[in-house]
Design goal:
heterodimer; A: alpha/beta; 6-stranded mixed sheet; 10 helices; 26% strand; globular; B: alpha/beta; abc type-2 transporter like fold; 2 domains; 5-stranded mixed sheet; 5 strands; 9% strand; elongated
Amino acid sequence: MNSTAYNYQNDISIRTEGLTKRFGNFTAVDNITFHVKKGEIFGFLGANGAGKTTAIKMLCGLSKPTSGIAIVAGYDVATQSEQIKKNIGYMSQKFALYDDLKVWENMRLYAGIYGMEEKKIAYRINEILIQLGFENEKNKFVKALPIGWKQKLAFSISIIHQPEIVFLDEPTGGVDPAARRQFWELIYATAEKGITVFVTTHYMDEAEYCNRICILVDGKIVALNSPKKLKETFAAQNIDEVFQLLARNANRT
Amino acid sequence: MQTERNKTMMIQKKYSPFLSFVRKEFFHIFRDRWTSIILLIMPILMIILFGFAITTEVKNAKIAIFDPSQDAATHAIVDKLSTSEYFTIETYICSQNEIDNLLKKGNIGLIVVFSEHFYENMMHSGDAQIQLIADGSDPNYAYTLTQYASALLGSYQKENILPNINPPFQIETEIKMLYNPTLKGAYNTVPGVLGMVLMLICAMMTSISIAREKEFGNMEVLLVSPLKPITIILSKTVPYIVLSLINFTSIMLLAVFALKVPIAGNIALIALISLIFIFVSLALGLLISTIVKTQIVAMLISGVVLMFPVILLSGMIFPVESMGLFFQYLAKILPANWYIAAIRKVMIQGLGITSVYKELIVLISMAVFLIAVSIKKFKVRIE
């Protein structure tokens, strides 16, 4: 797999080799190696404490690896975290919108934080409002929106600066199934534009929507393939079964 | 609209991350009714409340008289006291021994003690003596009573200086505070409220507003964004610096025009000291925000750790000199006390910069130390 990553450098958004993070004697992320292609929807699965969050922190340039390499959007996480931050988007379960700002003010704030040009900001705000069908909500306060709308807005804002990669950390927490389906349509549309989507989730039905998934147990990668292939390999009906099979041997939960 | 946009584009092609962030902070403040009330109305209410509470006029305060002389002069003075609207003579006592018991009962605020042979001494040797004994357990009240009584005695003295009396007599009043012998610093509304308000706005509000970012998960996103931690900190503090300066101005104006507290010293020096104190408070707020995760904890910590000690140990309500040694030392490490002491010296006593060197050096060192520690603690990581 490594040799593939080297050969298709330009098509690779994220590449890690032996990425490891230790806190004292505790190895949170243990020697993980994988690559994510441009425009791919890459699912990162694991129980709580499996090391998902630690891995994402390292990939976003917030935490330095103890050993190993990670190249994100062409930059080394160990030395070029500033460049990485400019080229990624990030959204978490908490959405991180400001309730007391209007829809467009939230958009403008994050666009400003990413140092976008004035003209581009106006263009992107319009584009997103149309894409979400939020034209009439432009001047509404975010606190007045239903949770499913907030989630879509938060996602659109996380890619307002058109990053190369967007990291979604359990983005669908607390959202009803219908809204989750709509949300995944948005993710597909984004990936089609060439933005790589790196998503963690604990909804196993969602994992099926990913192009490839990587299952983490005790900080190690125990499976990495497309959902279809994984189901074949483990002779399982769905990803949930695959996950249960693999996570059964976990020492830490 | 379009041309306006083009104009701003020419000046500034990119929308500044710092300014977008500062703007957002102002939205947070002014869109929340309670936040704006706390920040802009409460300081004014506080100065008015504390100002008038402490300078409350004394009316019909109960006093006792010990008059072993019983002569023309003492009668005239007692008359003057009892006819004034400030005092009501509750009782006459016959011996010095009664003083303690009388004050312990608690309804007498002041005892006027005349020396023996008052009139004779006044006319001949010129050293007639009056002792004012006040109940210092309520120092502010005691202080006010003695001030009023002294003023009445003074006016008696002036009225009775007649050209044919030679030499002019002199009544010496001796003020004695029981239970609280030195009353320094009890009477200090304006510097105290200034210290409290600046502490409240800078430390409490800054820590709450940063805790809010953490609580709602915004901090994660901000840390993943290209904003540098120092930019986040600066844009969090700028709005509170601006508000502090507005409040500083309004408190000064109220002090001068409503409370009639004259500014004896240099206003620029007062502003400089205040600015240094603002930085100390901001740093404290940042420090608190680095250790807490929710707004409510930030509020409790800044309330309990910062506000209460400032109110209780700054000498604004209870004189620090009458507290135990432990509390006197504790009071020494509170930045607000150094600030209040400096402002007191400059604003009330009219002293110059040379007399507040010590306070300035302490405050500046505190600011540098706290800012260094809090920036170091403001770690670039998601919890």
